[in-house]
Design brief:
It is a single chain. This protein is α+β, with helices and mostly antiparallel strands and 90 residues long. The chain has two domains: 45 residues, no CATH class; 31 residues, no CATH class. It is 28% helix and 13% strand. The protein contains two helices and two strands; from the N terminus they run H-H-E-E. A two-stranded antiparallel ribbon has the order 1-2.
Length: 90
């Protein structure tokens, strides 16, 4: 991903050079002001969750779970996933 961004940054630099009168050997480049889908998704932020109206009053009354996506490289004992459970009361 970083290599792709570096290539696009170089293209932007070449475009800026072609606009200036310093270097006239460049052909006029056509610049399209678009943000690629990957860059757009990576720059997005998540909205905050709404405030919960229900509050658990005892242990294990409400448990939140989250399964993390597979890791590229296995962690302990070849595990690719991670599951996390959180008790709402604690």
């Amino acid at each position: 991903m970083k290599a792709l961004q570096e290539k696009f940054n170089k293209l932007n630099f070449l475009y800026e050079l072609s606009k200036s009168a310093i270097i006239s050997c460049f052909l006029k480049l056509i610049y399209v002001d678009k943000i690629c889908k990957t860059c757009q998704l990576q720059k997005q932020t998540k909205n905050k969750f709404s405030q919960s109206t229900s509050i658990s009053t005892s242990l294990l009354q409400l448990i939140h779970g989250n399964i993390c996506k597979p890791f590229k490289h296995p962690i302990y004992n070849g595990v690719l996933y991670f599951i996390m459970f959180i008790d709402d009361h604690t």
